[in-house]
Sequence to fold (257 residues):
Amino acid sequence: MKIRKFKMFIRSVMPSFFQLLAIAKYSNLLQIYKFRTKYPNVRIFPHTVMRVKKGFYSLDNQDFILDRYFFKGKKKGFFCDIGGNHPLIGNNTKYFEDLGWRGVVFEPLPHMVELWTKQRKAKLFSIALSDNEGEGSFAVSEYSDGVMSFMKNTSLGSLDKSEIYDIKVRTRLFKDVMNEENITHIDYLSLDVEGHEVNVLKGIDFNKVRIDVLTIENHSLYGDDNIRNMMINNGYIFWGRVMNLDDIYVHTDYKVS
Fold:
């Protein structure tokens, strides 16, 4: 009875809160409906920051999803982490490294490079990947929690300009680095470079490097079809979508072990 009275009181003083809550739930369902109508065969996973199981690290359970549907506790594998950011917090490849996987990471931010060197075993390349060889100017924002993000100058949005500064980083093509490292097979590739994904993908030679499964940040309401078309044209199935965040792609010839 007390709980019911409390709810009635809240509704009397904050009616707009419950209206907004109802609208939010409806909007989410509407987004899923529209996405499902366009992509009826793509699996949908909710956008949530709650871990479904201990031992996983991803922001929205990407590592759990991949392990459940594809890798199933596989002990030996190879990953590539492009735009690794923090080596532990919200990281997509840490779980697989814990299983014994080897890997490479591309992270140009000096602050994060230091953390990767101390906390991870993967071979680190302190460069940015793009569709050209040279030097790129990128804007960096340091948030209140100290975590820095790597982003294009064109995607700064409404960030406080006083907290933003530019850095110069070396840019290379993915295919050139893979050729130098003699890497021809990658079990899992995580791509999260804050709007620079298409540029990175243009630098991949999918005929020379076989990548089984990828998660690619496609961070908008329904995602960018340019990324999807590029992946489909290179022999991949658009397999899953973490709503408003990542696309999951699987090579057409990949066989789940």
